[in-house]
Structure formats: C-alpha cells, structure tokens
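User: Arylsulfatase. Structure?
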Amino acid sequence: MKKRLGLMLAATMLGIASPAIAQQTRDVLPIPAPPFTGKIAQNVLDSTPTPLRRVTAPAGAPNVFVMMSDDVGFSMASAFGGPVPTPNMERLAAVGQRYNRFHTTGICSPSRAALLTGRNHHNAGVGFLSDMPTGFPGYGGTILPQTATIAQVLRLNGYNTAMFGKHHNVPGNERSEAGPFDNWPTGLGFEYFYGFPHGDTDQFEPNLYRGIAMVAPEEGNGELLDHRLASDVIRWVHNQKAGAPDKPFFVYLSPGSTHAPHQAPAEWIARFKGKFDQGWDKVREQIWRRQLAMGIIPRGTKLTARPAEIPAWDSLTPGQKRFAARTMEVAAAQLAYQDEQLGRVIEELRRMGQLDNTLVAVINGDNGASGEAGPKGTINELRSMAVHDEDEAWMQANIDRLGGPMTYQSYPVGWALAMNTPLRWVKQYGSMLGGVRNGMILSWSGHVARPGSICGEFSHVIDIVPTVLEAAKLPAPRLVNGIEQKPVDGISLLDGLSGACDANKPRTQYFEMTGKAGLYHNGWFLSGDDGRPSWENLPSNTHPQIKWTLYDLREDWSQSTDVAAQHPAQLQAMLGLWEREAERYNVYPLDHRMGAGRIDRKAIAALMGGGRKRFDFWGKDVSIPAMGQPILFGRSFTLDADLVLDKADSSGAIVALASRFGGWSLYLDQGRPAFTWARSTDPNEIRTVKADKALPRGKTQLTMRFAVAQPGGPAEVVLSSSGREFGRVSLPASVLTPAGGGEMLDIGRDLGVPVTEYVTPRGRIEGDIPHVSVTFD
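Assistant: Predicted structure:
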C-alpha cells in the first residue's frame, strides 16, 4: 500500500496522474469541470477520487504559426512577382498554396483585430486605429469581449499560445504600467508576449515588453528587432516543446517591418544598390509583366493607370531621383531581412520535426503599401505625416544615412503604388484594391492538394480564424468566460487548400476605412471614394462627397475600368447592399478624417485624467507613454525637479520626452543644466541651451519654465535653480510630434531612441531624482 501511494504521489507531482478527460462539447469556454463522481469518506484510504481533469486539444490538432507583416503591399515580395527576393516565402509557397485575392481592412489596428477574432473590424469594435477611439459601437478601439480572439479559444482548448512583435490593439491610455491590461496580448489569450503594443518602433533601439513589463534595453545586444523576434520565437518553441512535447502551440509573429521606419543592416542595403534607379513607373511595368508570366495575376489583367496625384518618375529632379531610389533600396533590404528571419523560424521547426504538423499562414501585409510619406518621401515619417514640409536639401544630405539609426524614413508614394502592382492606390483606401489586397501563403504538410498552386478564391483576413478552428477540429465557441459570442464572420479556407479552390465562389464582403468604402459581391466591386489622398488630412468640419464607381472583377481583375454607366441597375443594387452591410456591422457613422481631428478629445481627456493642473513623478526610472498625460508641449507649464547628485559634474537625463525624431530633454552635462528641443534631426529644427555653471553636489533643485504666448506658437524655455537663472532658449514652435509611437516620457534616463547625446549610457542620471512635479498654467 505504501509503495502504491508513493507512486501515485510521484505521478501527481509530475502532472501525469491521469489521462486527459474527453471533452464532449467545446462550445462553452472554459470547458466546465466534470462533476465529482467519486466517494468521500473520513479517511482518504476509504475514499475514491474523480480522475484529475486536464484540458487537451483534440487528437491530431496541429501547431499553428501565423505571420503578418506590415505595409508590404501585394507585389513587393518575389513570391508574388515583386522585386524583393523572398526565398523563404517562395519555399513555403512551393509546398503550400498562394492566395492572390486575399484581403485586409486597409490599415493596421483593424486588420489585426479582424485577424485575431475572425470578425469584421467594426464588428470587433476596431473600425479605426486603436490610438484614436471614439464613442461609437464600431470605433471603441478595443477588441470586444463578444469577439474572443483565436488565442483565447485555442488556449482554453489545450494549446499553448505566444505572440511576438507588433500589437496595435492597445489604446494609448492603456500602454503604461498602470494598465489596464485587458487589451494587451496577455489579456487576449496569449500566455506569452514579446514585442510592442503600438503602431511602429525603431528597429535599432526599440522599447519592448515581455508580458507587460519593459525589457531592459541592454538585452538586444545590438541585434535589429526582426532578428530578436525570430530568436525569441525559437527560444520559446524550444521551451514549450521541452515542457509539453505533445501539446500543440499557436505562435503569432507580427514584425513591425516594413512599416516606417524603414531600417536594415547596412550590408543588406548594399545588396540593392542601383536596383531601383529606373524609377517606379518602369519597376511597376516590370512587376506587372513578371506577375503575368508567373500566373500571379490572370492573363489579360491590365496595369492600372498611375493617379495624377502621384508624380511620374521622369518629372523628378536628379536629386529627388537619387533620394527616392535609395529609400526603395532600404525598404527592399528590410523585407529581404524579414524573410531571412522567417526562414530561421521555419527551418528550426523543420529541424525539430514540428513543421510537418504545423499549419502555416504568412500574410504579406496588414494593408497595401503605405503612401503616407507623400510624393517626396521622408526621413522622419511622424514629423511629416500631417505637413509635408521637410527641407529637401536636408533629406538629400541624408541619402547615405538612410536605413540607419539616424533616419525614420519612408519611401515616396510612387514606390507604394509600385509595391501594389497592378492595383489602384495604396494603404488607407478601403475603396481600392491597392489598399486592401495582400498576398497570402497557406501551407500544411499532407493537406495541400496542389503544392505550388495559386488560389484565386476571394478570401479575407477574417478567414484565418475559421481556418485554424477547422484544422484543430474545434467549434467557434458560443460562450467565452460567460459572455455570449458574436458569430464568426469569416469562412474556412481548408476546402480551397484541399483542392476545391473556386474563383467564382459566392461571397459578400464590405470594406471601409476613413470614409473610403468598398463592397465585393460575387465578382462585382463597388467603390466609394472621398478624394482624400492618404498623405493628407481633412479639416475637422469637412464632410466630403463620396463618388461611387463600379467594377466587374470577373473581367477586370485589377479594378481598372469603371462600368457604372453601363450597369446602373447593378450599381443601385450594390449601393443598397452596401448600406445593409454597413448597418449590420456598425460601420456608421462614416468619418473621413485621418488624423487627430477625429479624436474625441473630451472623452480621451476624461479617460486620462484630463483637467489636472499638476502631475507628480516620484523617483527616477519612471517611464510612461510620450503621448499620454501629461502632454508636455503646446501649452505653458513649470517643471520642478528635486535632485540628489553623486558629484558636482554629474550627468544624465532628468526628464526626456520621446526621441531625436521628435522630442525634448532636460538633462545635466557634467553638472551643467541643459535643454534640447528636436522637431527632427535637421539642425535647423533643433534648439539647445547649456548653462555655463554646474549645480552643486548633493541635494539641489532645478526648475524649467516652458512658456507659450499663443497656442501652437513659439515658446521660450528658461532654466533656473533657487531663483537663479541658468539659461534660456527660444523655440520656433511649441508643438512637435513625439516619435516614434512607442517612445516614452522618461525620468532619470532616456529609453528607446535618445533625444540627444548624453555623457552617460542611455542618459542614466548620476544620482537620484526623488521628485518631479509639472504644473500647468
């Protein structure tokens, strides 16, 4: 008896006390615990336990690996006829199947919400960027509890779940250590997260999180972000399979590339030198011809006309051509480098013997290629997104630095159009295929009827969830955590993978982004466009008219020819269907504004403690999002810092906002108070003042006065201590755009990309900062 009891105890401690209990139904999650069926007596030896319950995935459920890249466009990768070599994607396509009519929503957050939930983006509550939520059902900016993510469903069905990279589904006011964390990956079903919860990040010096905790900046060891993400995927899978060899995993890899900033290793950029000197018009034609030859697009597909708003390559000056060609070289290098990292992950799965039992989906972009840098391109995307007034001489002076840590570049819109060949327009266009059509590769060993084939069936990012559920033999749940679920909007793609791909399969799918509307219905496409180029904003009180056009995609694959005049009845039928779909999925009200004009400032201010006149920060090593409260630009305030300095020539940041691409820093330079304001890296947009005297060692105090005479106008900064002025500087403007999206307001350090050069590493203060207060006028 003692021997038996000892064996039972050992087995229990090892977690193998009993086999998994079969789950009869999985439409309610978590799966309810079975009733107790044993016997309880006063003595355990006279009692009978119920076998221990362990939720397991259905027999034969595969591992799942999903990758979605960023802003790639339909035709950038060689796997879809593009000019950028992506051999690892090509190898996946050779054993899997390419989808040449796969669609996204037109912009970051909505595509990611639709991917994770299987619901249309407005239906999931994310009709636009999570950074700009509004109080309408389709635009709250957070994934609704009624639309549980695939990570939640798989985890509650016996999978391990992990996410790596970009998660642009956390509202800006929820990105600090104060949370709430319901909308972070770890609150949406991912047991492990390593990445960033915002729209973009620097590849060289990113602010990253593991779970909900910031990662030490030294952890990167100089590796670019894409490499770090792939390495962590591999590390996690090694440990997951060590701990639970028979348990399937769900890995979601979401690199921030090729979203701006376009950055890549110098040796990779060098590989593309001169490859784009012929310009976007010729490259676009080359891609089109290559796609026809490869069968990526059907015979007879037209190359759509270049819009008049996008300049012809031959109209550029020699300097503009050199700059533009170099920006494309960098973007190409970034995608090629991304493909190399994908290859590392896939090869390791193969080496481990896991690839044959892994469903792989690689989505080339969360929308079309981005034209947000406008006709001229940029070396500082966020600075120029609203007003494209960068000094061209300064832009061209940085040609040799493009792709490195000193630029935040994005290419001109002409290249974005080329990377969407042969389609119309670019990212943000829910009305045009160039904004919403992306290449996708689906691979699953033993389940692909025609390896290497191209499937022309209409498909959408909402189809990934039902595809995964069918592969895992799981139902879409009816209840999750007690919350009744909305039906999944997508359709499984496994039939098409197994040989039943049907280009004429009936399907209805709406599109909408910033008031640009589209509707696909059984081969027809309705387009409603408001005329706003993606690189421009509209005034807050603007209500543009929508121009409706109609396309027969059965005969016109690239959406080249408007046939509304020839088919007025079809146009009216499509308009009626569009209105019904818009009402059904909470698309209304339409908002045509792209930028800050659409933000409900009162609601956001209330969420962020708006109306406060004073903010206090206790201690150094404090970091909060740069675009959270308090907003430390554009209005007058006084900053008081209590310091305890280790020595008379102490150095380091006292308070630093954002980065060299947009930010400011109050710091000490060998004891001397200093202030730097940087709208960009352009010397004409930088102001610095340094005192000629140092603060004393030990306890001291420093005051910074930020005075603005008129909202948005010039400002003056005055540094003082104990009533004694230490320096002042005039700023040409009081407003800047903190860049990039994940930069912070830091106390006692400057994390991520620094605002300026410091004596100490990352601006760490040599001493202590017991208290900082900010008081607004």
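Confidence is low (pLDDT under 50) at residues 1-21. Residues 54 and 449 are 35 Å apart (CA to CA).
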